[in-house]
Amino acid sequence: MAGQPVPTNEWWSSLVWQRYAGNPYGENLYAHPMSFHAQAQGLGVGYPNTAAVVSNGTAYEMLHRDDLFVGVAGLNAPGVAVDGWSDWTVSPLWTGGGRTLRATIGHGLPFVHAEATGGNARVAFNAAATVWSNTPGVLGVTINGHEYALFSPSAWTVSGSEATSAAAFFSVALLPSRDALALFQKYAFSFVTDTKVSWSYNAGTAQSSATYSATTVARQGTQTGTLQALYRHQWLNTTDAVTAHRYTSPRGEMRLREGGSFTTRQAFSGVLPALPLSSQADTTRLRNEIDAELNAADPWKGATDTYWTGKALNRLSNLARIANQIGYTAGRDRLIAMVRDRLTDWLTATPGEAGRHFAYDSTWDTLIGYPASFGSDRELNDHHFHYGYYILAAAIVAQHDPAWASDARYGGMIKMLVKDANNYDRSESRFPFLRSFDAYAGQNWASGHAGFAHGNNEESSSESMMFATAAVLFGQATGDNTLRDAGIYLYTTQQAAIGQYWFNKDNAVFPAGFNHGTVGIVWGAGGTYGTWWTANPEEIHGINMLPITGGSLYHGAWKADILQNIAEMRAANGGTEVEWKDVITEFLAIADPAQALANYGGGLEPEAGDSRAHAYHWITSLNTYGTPDHSVTASVPTYAVLAKNGARTYVAYNPGTTTATVSFSDGQTLSVPASSTAWRGPAGSGTDSGSGGVNPTSPTTTTTTTTTTTTTTNPPGGRNAFASIQAESFDGQSGVFTETTTDTGGGQNIAGLGNGNWALFRGVDFGSATGRQFTARVASGAAGGVSGLVEVRTGSPTGTVLGSFAVGNTGGWQSWRTVPANMSPLTGKQDVYLTFTSGQPADFVNVNWFSFGQ
């Protein structure tokens, strides 16, 4: 596979990414129904079909245990390599002592197809084994209560705790029952050589179809085809026949199909740039809340890295749509310009630039944004989470400035972000196919290396859906139907998976004894009622709600579960929500907008990617027009149908240059002007024009961002505000200590910095100049999910925050980065406090020096 884009974020990525120096064999691999673990003697095989509820009831797991080992007699390989892969299979390779073993394993594949050289085929039993069938070339054996069959062109010889055969190829199968032996023998030598997913979208029927195909070759005889175990989200959405055979898995029941392919079909319930404005909404309130964001000292709220910048882009672009709906065009134009210019800055790289750019890494075939966060650089984590926000914001900009979003301009870069996280174009050689999205499992995986005993994991299913929403909206806005249809495939497939595996909407997946109605994290081996950074119930539930966008209405497919979810959260929380009240109340509004509106106040600080105006707009819209009605579809993918008291409101977005007539499956039609969203229903009708304003980009010019550096003379006395101020020179502190630094220049840095800590620097002198920027040299080895704010205040450690930036793990406590931030103007001589704020108790940052700029 040399020269191929390297897959990461797969269920099997620990085979290609050695995370631990002492383990060249990878971690547990959860293919479902089988599980695996590579070792020196070959491939450990298991069937985890009994769930354990652990961690005081907050997690369930079906951990891998080796029932048997597939290998070659005498094999003792020093490590494992990867010799091939396809959309949901992988072929690990062992080489050592003149022997080789090549196996093919995969999602839903109840076989291990093996090829051996240098010795006899060998299957070693890891527990007491009962042989219940032994005919030429076929051995039936029970181990740990699990039924297996061994198939070989030659006879098996059983000796002690192993079986051997003089064969160059052989198969080991996990049987659902002993009476399935004849069926499995039929396909034992039909080896799977490739697997592929293909999809299509029929706009007339609003149906997304996906076909999952396995290519096979007959190693003996003429039989081709194979057996495939379908996940619950698959067999619920296919009309293709399955057998009566069943498996147990951490995703619930899997059903066995005989055949080389199957097709799933799902209705696409649509996405929107924004909900329609409620006729009952207080537009003065909306205007004031938009102005509060626009006129903040830092509308970006200290965002510097890809993740927090993405959330800020989403917050501001959402406000632009609301400003447009209430006729606040000046505010709309300011917001669109802010978003467009910040996107332009990030999508433009200049020599020597330290931040706000993306760089392509040709070793790992990936595009990384710097500053990175949450391991998006060193571990290739979360690219779909981070980049989805950029793509979604770009879709809003594209409505107002199509030239900026063209492929020849920044649209080409936006599509590179899409392809890095989930490349939908098989001809694209810079990125692996669907890096984050597991086509067969129906979900994304967040970890680049998958180096965990529980396999890979995915936390925020809702941010994954945000990525899919962004792909649909940007594809539709730019006329790229290939991108749009890929987004629809991601959206519909995940909708089916999320309802089952995160929300257990049918109560058929989570095991008995796991007394939670939702999980915060899905693992290969199970699920966890928790997050990476906190045990706060509001965030455990909320992480699979945020961000609330025009693509969040998929939750309307399980409205009863929404109410159960909120009730469980409040019971665990000891009362109604306070931390992420905006997000949680918006989520509640999808099922019960009247309760949501009565519950929502607006005095609490919104979640970083949201705003008071957006929360109020969303809740009042659903309260006026109703909740999602998925029984009706439309002839365009950018639509929604809302229903209240049995009456429907029809909404559709038309990015085209001429008026479009949208047909709905219940016979209704809606005329939508060019570049607009329109709606009609009993509670009113309206239009949200997406064009106009913002000084559109000329197709022949490039927007650039210029940074100006001003040199000043040192002010008399005190600390020079415009020179580097060493952090260890503080005049007072709380919770701060010093240590030797390995940063350039040596000396010391301050450390132990966490929530509530501060350091005082007296007499910082700005002379006759005005400080408007703040820069600090920081490093962090904080655990995943731990981050915080470095803030500037004057007068006291509780004074007004004048400027701040967010920081998470930079790669280590001595891995230094220079981070800039804007701040409110400072003049004269000031007592400056560096304060440190975090939602987690753990230390999150070290500081070497800081300075100010004009």
From TrEMBL:
Stretches with biased composition (Gly residues)? 683-693
What EC number(s) is this enzyme filed under? 3.2.1.39
Lipid metabolism recorded as keyword: no
Q: Where is the composition biased (Low complexity)?
A: 700-713
Catalytic activity field: Hydrolysis of (1->3)-beta-D-glucosidic linkages in (1->3)-beta-D-glucans
Extract the SMART domains matched here. CBD_IV
GO molecular function term, any single one: carbohydrate binding
Q: Where is the CBM6 domain?
A: 723-853
Cite the residue spans of the region called Disordered.
Answer: 671-722
Q: Which GO terms describe its biological process?
A: cell wall organization; polysaccharide catabolic process
- Record keywords, A-Z: Carbohydrate metabolism, Cell wall biogenesis/degradation, Glycosidase, Hydrolase, Polysaccharide degradation, Signal
Q: Superkingdom, according to UniProt?
A: Bacteria
Matching Pfam families, A to Z?
CBM_6, Glyco_hydro81C
Name the PANTHER family for this protein: ENDO-1,3(4)-BETA-GLUCANASE 1 (PTHR31983), GLUCAN ENDO-1,3-BETA-D-GLUCOSIDASE 2 (PTHR31983:SF0)
Q: Which family does it belong to?
A: Belongs to the glycosyl hydrolase 81 family.
The protein here is known as glucan endo-1,3-beta-D-glucosidase
Its lineage reads:
Bacteria, Bacillati, Actinomycetota, Actinomycetes, Pseudonocardiales
